[in-house]
Specification:
Two copies of one chain form a homodimer. Chain A has about 450 residues and is an alpha/beta fold. Chain A is built from twelve helices and 25 strands. Chain A has three domains: about 170 residues, FAD/NAD(P)-binding domain (3-Layer(bba) Sandwich); about 130 residues, 3-Layer(bba) Sandwich (FAD/NAD(P)-binding domain); about 110 residues, FAD/NAD-linked reductase, C-terminal dimerisation domain (Enolase-like, domain 1, 2-Layer Sandwich). In chain A, helix 1 packs parallel to helix 8.
């Protein structure tokens, strides 16, 4: 095959894994990556733990630096370079060097858009104040950590009770701040059903988080030095010298849209299983690209490092001339807040109802390992299956150490079209340090059948 | 339905779960259980931890006592009662009261044989010495623990490097004994492939266990007081004031065989998926009954509490007039030795080769959770799939905390007929405290494809 030039826009999970995959298959191709931030291939999911000092050093979060990519893989990853325009007709991109402000046009044979997602930053008074952070890039994490170290804030307000919100609550409690959490919904963790989310709310409060549900951020008030001093909601004011915005992210798809590439309803770039966009020789992968939800049968926007890596692997394989297809997602997610582990996959009861799928549900409480064994803790499992066929649809798990990763067994079971009945008799591993004699997910399955 | 009488022989996992299931469906039936030991429904798998004082009190291991069964479930569980004969023609059993030595014939409408398994006790000189224990019943565990407390042995010799052997090695090290482990095979953990078992051997030795492989027990030597003093192998003698036999168990199927009930080649009672034996109105469940191995397509003998419970649930459902079927097993097993977790499921490489199945294998080393996260440890995963279709066949996992229960994901994947390729793209849960961005089993799957 003749020597081709691959240009990748975005040097994090999806972009760099695609670039690496192409390099393994095509040792001679030219591969150039443009990344507007100062970092490549870092763990965005690790940022809350970095701020909480559970992970001390930012370099721990970086899997590979641009130097490593160049030396080991002959991939030219140019940091602080922003792509401002895609010109599909002439197969070139307009690149801005953010250090020198130089602008150039670079050609490509194949283009991968891996521009990621950006935190939603509501246009409210004071939102630009110092001490207000939305964490998505490593750079934003470093800024936040420096701010915390420099100004030693005492009163943190977190806006949004999702994954980032919970992880940041833990991190900031760890740093001895008082933590308030605002969510405009009637529950935290919107991907859980309310009955399960209530367990999380109770534990948050139990651990000292001031929780304000059904309450919206209105404004941020500052001191004369432009640093945040107070948060105003539609119901009250809260003292605050640190504000974390965790109200979600949106796909960075403007560049693609401007080039006439088709987007989905979700705002993410439309791709098929091979991560091909509507434009010839242009692929998209990672947070900016859509994923098929295998139970909803529709393309959704999902922002997760693990999905981004899979996207990148598929895109890289296909770009290099191989065959691969990304099947889709079940919306699996996992997190922890202090000693509580939380996981979900597939359809929640709310989602099944919204899709008018006839479903059955069971919620059980049990122990993570044999009750008599030291370290045994509580676990609650909610399991949902089709009412007609018994096919598994989803699960939500909340519990202490060892609880949440059990979600993976349900993920595999859903993928394999297993029923609740199949799950009851599944030959899962048992020994007292690992499980009760019926695994908690089987206890839930028994209740379902 | 008219009032029937169910007799159950054996009051542990299979027998009591069947009895309980029948009671839930048939409130009026008479249910009598004969158990020759002094205990019902206990966790045999917990015995090593009981001896190691990780679980202090024997009562913790007992799920339900005969009194509970009688009061709460109207199930008459008669302990220290042995069934000596089954008379299928007249639908009766001959019962010996081990306390009073009284013998009686008791009739049944339905009979469940749940007689369990017994440890293999080789007929060698000195094997009856005091201080030699094979642990299967709670009673034997209590005797062993009392012996240890009374005589404070210093030098333990364990015969057999399987699950019991490893768990007892941990328990006895915990009690500050020197521990020697003899196995006549060239590896410990016979259900693992040798390359994986070597990791276990290395760690056993690292933790102070004296390991003697390819070495057979020849005799046990005693002092004048009949207490064990020395163990003789075909290669050496070892000081020993405590000997644990962990060389396997065999199904208690003589009673069934004597009654003309068909056995399998394995020696276990032949049953179909409904746990029916060859004899009308007689069921078998638990260790004494065979299980279908879903990948070997043959009936095997397997001795595991979790399988026994499932057998009992199916037998109870069917006996009570309902419909249920036990699909079979993959030979899933899990254990730990100190900080090392060990699990396996499906076919090992050795087994696939023996069955002449064309297979591919991959073995990888990774980290249990994100490498930069505190508590991250090592994990090795060996994954086996069909060479033709890529269908998953089996896995072996060895690693630190959080490693082994991942086997369940592979179990569900095998049951769901997933391929290695499917596993690569499976939507497993990721967050730094739980996993690397590719779960270790996916890293193994990537290497396979």
């Amino acid at each position: 095959m003749d020597r081709k030039k691959l240009v990748v826009i975005g040097g994090d999970a999806a972009g760099m894994s695609a670039a690496s995959k192409v390099r393994r298959s095509q040792p001679d191709w030219e591969i150039v990556v443009y990344e507007r931030s100062p970092h490549t291939s870092y763990s965005a999911c690790g940022i809350p733990y970095f701020i909480g000092d559970i992970v001390e050093d930012e370099s721990s979060l970086i899997a590979r630096t641009p130097e490593t990519f160049l030396e080991k893989h002959q991939i030219k990853a140019l940091i602080r370079h922003e792509v401002a325009k895609i010109d599909p007709e002439n197969k070139r991109v307009k690149v801005k060097d953010l250090s020198t402000h130089r602008i150039s046009w670079e050609t490509y044979d194949y283009l991968l858009i891996a521009t990621g997602a950006s935190p939603i930053h509501p246009d409210l008074p004071g939102i630009q104040a110092q001490g207000v952070f939305s964490l998505s890039t490593l750079q934003s994490g470093i800024l936040a950590k420096n701010y915390v170290k420099t100004y030693q804030p005492k009163h943190a307000v977190i806006v949004g009770g999702g994954y980032i919100g919970l992880e940041m609550a833990e991190a900031l409690l760890e740093r001895d701040m008082s933590v308030s959490l605002i969510d405009r919904n009637e529950q935290v963790m919107g991907t859980l059903d309310k009955d399960m989310a209530t367990r999380v709310s109770d534990y948050l409060q139990d651990q000292g988080v001031q929780l304000y549900l059904e309450e919206s951020l209105i404004a941020i008030h500052t001191d004369t030095d432009q640093k945040v001093r107070m948060v105003e909601t539609d119901k009250r004011t809260l003292d605050a010298d640190l504000v974390i915005l965790g109200i979600g992210v949106k796909p960075n798809a403007e560049l693609a849209a401007d080039a006439g590439i088709q987007l989905c309803d979700s705002g993410a770039i439309a791709v098929n299983g091979r991560m091909e966009t509507s434009q010839k020789d242009i692929w998209a992968a990672g947070d900016c690209a859509s994923s098929r939800h295998l139970l909803k049968n529709k393309d959704i926007f999902i922002s997760l490092g693990t999905v981004a890596n899979k996207h990148g692997l598929v895109a890289g394989t296909v770009i290099a001339g191989g065959d691969a297809s990304f099947p889709g997602v079940f919306g699996t997610a996992i997190t922890k807040f202090k000693a509580m582990e939380i996981a979900r996959t597939g359809l929640s009861e709310t989602e099944a109802a919204a899709l008018a799928i006839p479903y059955q549900k069971a919620t059980i409480e049990s122990s993570t390992i044999a009750r008599y064994f030291p370290g045994s803790g509580k676990i609650a499992v909610k399991l949902i299956c089709r009412a007609d066929s018994g096919l598994l649809l989803g699960a939500q798990i909340i519990g202490s150490q060892g609880a949440a990763k059990r979600i993976d067994t349900v993920v595999a079971a859903i993928q394999g079209n297993l029923t609740a009945q199949d799950l009851v008799y599944l030959d899962l591993a048992y020994a007292p340090p690992f499980s009760g004699i019926w695994d908690p997910i089987q206890i839930a399955a028994r209740q379902l059948v």
